[in-house]
Amino acid sequence: MTGKKTPVNPADEAAPGVFAGFAADGRATSIERYGAGHIHETFRVRVRDRGHSGYILQRVNGRIFADIPGMMDNIVRVTEHMRRRLDGVPGSDPAREVLTVVPARDGASFLHDGSGEYWRCFVFIDHRELGARPGTPAQACEAGRLYGRFLALLADLPAPPLRVTIPRFHDLARRLDDFREALDMNRAGRRDAAAAEVDFAAGHGEPLLATLEDARRRGLPLRVTHNDTKFNNVLIDSGGRGLCVIDLDTVMPGHVLYDFGDAIRSAANAGREDEEDLGRVRLNLEVFRDFAAGYLGELRGVLTAGEAGLLAFAARLMTFMIGLRFLSDHLDGDRYFRCGRPGHNLQRARVQFRLLEEMERHAPEMERILAGLAATS
Ligand code: ADP
Ligand code: GN1
Ligand code: MG
Questions:
Q1: Which of these, 26, 36, 279, 359, could form a disulfide with 49 (CB 3.0-4.6 Å)?
Q2: Cβ 27 vs Cβ 105: under 8 Å
Q3: From atom 5 of ligand 1, which residue's Cα is the shortest distance away?
Q4: Of 58, 64, 67, 228, which is best to mutate to test ligand 2, by the most ligand atoms within 8 angstroms of its C-beta?
Q5: Average pLDDT of 213-227?
Q6: Where are the chain's structural domains?
Q7: Which of 184, 176, 170 is closest to 229 using CA atoms?
Q8: Tell me, what's the pLDDT at 82?
Q9: What is the β-pairing status of strands 111-112 and 234-236?
């Protein structure tokens, strides 16, 4: 047969050789692409041993993470701390409830391949493969419980502070600067066609930033936060029980608003993150309530009144910020988020902006739900 061959991604070719460099048990029987993350190249490795669930092998995105050894140090510290804390909890199973880093044969937590790329390996945790949003309110509650417990378990992480793996990651002032720069540069020549979204972004940024800065001035605490709390960054077992929080690359100092808000904009959107039909983008208030119930249930006595009072705002803040990042990346020529089709990032931005409008419309109900949960906790 003639015709074009699908280009082979160098990561696919390198994966088997790289896997052999990790101190994993058993020989690989298959190595396949896995998951739907936007950032790394992820593979599932199956091994011969029948009782073994295998491994996750990842080529880490070195364009986004400048200090991969530093990031892996964070991940090792965080997972070891959580494991120690869970060891003391009756009925918990730290082997499945915390990521396990598999070291390279030289003992390092990552491996550097011949072409300058960094790789890492985790034990694969068996789970139920779910979509990008909860299928049931119970799943939303479990996701909330896991992210809430994550914050609680790391509240006493000993010094020194974790490294900042992406500087100013959730800093709205920086994201607004980046947006204005992308607009000025108009690198991909897409500015005029995105005028409606650009106007939306220009009108919404400053009021959100003002509220956030005001909260900071009043002493909004910095905690160890996850910073990437999408629904597909938690694993849920076959019985529907929340198991493990994954994707620990951005665990670093942050505000609780970032975790709560990002989780809501991801889990409580009735449509997909890249939904073509904007009519499907609705705020699912049941998911909002159940996620919040799970989350706050784990954080009794941990959050300050100032934090608790800003959770509905947090959902709007993060929905806007991630929409803004998608829009800036679109204007910039899709250099950051993995895209599957032309206009993908623009559509993602539209979805977040529509969801933000939904949240504005439902703000009183969101506040009522949160007040009801506070009263019962
Ligand atoms: P990205 O930053 O690209 O989202 P993730 O670390 O979230 O990368 O991994 C991508 C996907 O791989 C996850 O959404 C999940 O489906 C799967 N995954 C990652 N780690 C594990 C693990 N230890 N066990 C099982 N599945 C995992
Ligand atoms: C990226 O890594 P992943 O796919 O879980 C991004 C998040 C965005 C998200 C949008 C390090 O998350 O900040 O909210 O895409 N992660 C990074 O889907 O930029
Ligand atoms: Mg992920």
A1: 26
A2: no
A3: 247
A4: 228
A5: 97
A6: 10-123, 137-376
A7: 170
A8: 98
A9: unpaired
At 133-174, the pLDDT tens digits run: 898 999 999 999 999 999 999 999 999 999 999 999 999 999
pTM value > 0.90: yes
Closest atom of ligand 2 relative to the 266 alpha carbon: 18
Region at 190 (left for phi over 0; alpha for psi -120 to 50; beta for the rest):
alpha
pLDDT attached to residue 26: 81
What ligand 1 atom has the least distance to the C-alpha of 34? 12
The CATH classification number of 10-123 equals 3.30.200.20
Q: Which residues line ligand 2 (CB under 6 A)?
A: 37-39, 64, 228, 230, 233, 247, 249-250, 262, 273, 322
Nearest atom, ligand 2, residue 37 CA: 4
Q: Could you tell me the distance, in angstroms and rounded to a whole number, from the CA of residue 46 to the centre of ligand 1?
A: 15
Note the Cα 159 to chain centre separation in Å. 24
Do the strands 223-225 and 111-112 form a parallel or antiparallel pair, or are they unpaired? unpaired
Q: Which CATH architecture has domain 137-376?
A: Alpha-Beta Complex (3.90)
Per-residue pLDDT tens over the stretch 293-334: 999 999 999 999 999 999 999 999 999 999 999 999 999 999
Q: Which residues' Cβ are closer than 6 Å to ligand 1?
A: 34-35, 37-40, 42, 56, 99, 122, 124-125, 232-233, 235, 246-247
Residue with tokens 């991909």: 188
